[in-house]
Amino acid sequence: MTDNNNLRLAVCEGLKNYLGIPVIRAGQNAEPPDYPYLSYTVTTLESANNGTWGEYKDGIDRIPVTQTWSITVQSDKEGESVELACKAREYLDNVGTQYLNDRDVIVQRVGSITNRDSLISIDYEYRNGFDAVFYLFDETKRSVDESGMIETMTLNKKE
User: Fold this and answer.
1) Per-residue confidence of the chain (159 residues) as pLDDT tens digits?
2) Whole-angstrom Cα distance, residue 8 to residue 121?
3) Does the N-terminal peptide bond of residue 36 adopt cis geometry, omega within 30 degrees of 0?
4) Rounded distance, CA 35 to CA 83, Å?
5) Which of 22, 91, 94, 150 has its Cβ near the most Cβ atoms within 10 Å?
6) Would you list the domain boundaries of the chain?
7) What is the CATH number of domain 4-141?
8) Which of 17, 19, 13 has the alpha carbon at shortest distance from 80?
9) b/e string for 64-94 if b means 16 or more Cβ within 10 A?
10) Radius of gyration for the chain, computed over Cα atoms and rounded to the nearest angstrom
C-alpha cells in the first residue's frame, strides 16, 4: 500500500510554509479559507509506472507507481493568483525538492501553469494552477518464505 498520508502531509506542509497561505483539499463541504489559498485534488491515486514488483531485503515487495495532483491557487486578485501559482510550481520543481526528499517524497514531473478562473455567482475568482506527478512505491509484505523452501505440503490429504 502506498503511504498516501506521508505524501499529503509533506507536500501540504511544505507548500503552506513556503507560500504562507492555507493549503486545503478541494471539494470539501466546509467553507474555504479567506483568499488567497491553495487547493489540491488527487486526480489519479495510483497509476502504473512501467515497472514490476521487486523483492527487497527488508521483506517488502515494491512496485513503482505515480500519483497525480491538480494544484490550484485561488484569489480575488488576478496578479496574486498568478504569482502564488508560479511560486508553488517553483517549490515543487526546485526549491522544495530537498525538503520533500527528506520525507520520502519524489516529484517526478510538474506541468504547465494554466488559467482556471471561475465566475462564482456575481464575483470572479482568479485561479491558476498546474498538475504535479509524484513518484512513489506501492508496498506489500512478502507472502513467500524468504528461504524459498516448502517445509510441508498436503497433497491428496497426505502430508
Assistant:
1) 778 899 999 999 999 999 999 999 998 899 999 999 999 999 998 887 777 888 888 888 888 899 999 999 999 999 999 999 999 999 999 999 999 999 989 999 999 999 987 666 567 789 999 999 999 888 888 766 555 666 777 878 877
2) 31
3) yes
4) 14
5) 91
6) 4-141
7) 3.30.2000.10
8) 19
9) bbbbbbbbbbbbeeeebbbbbbebbbebbee
10) 21
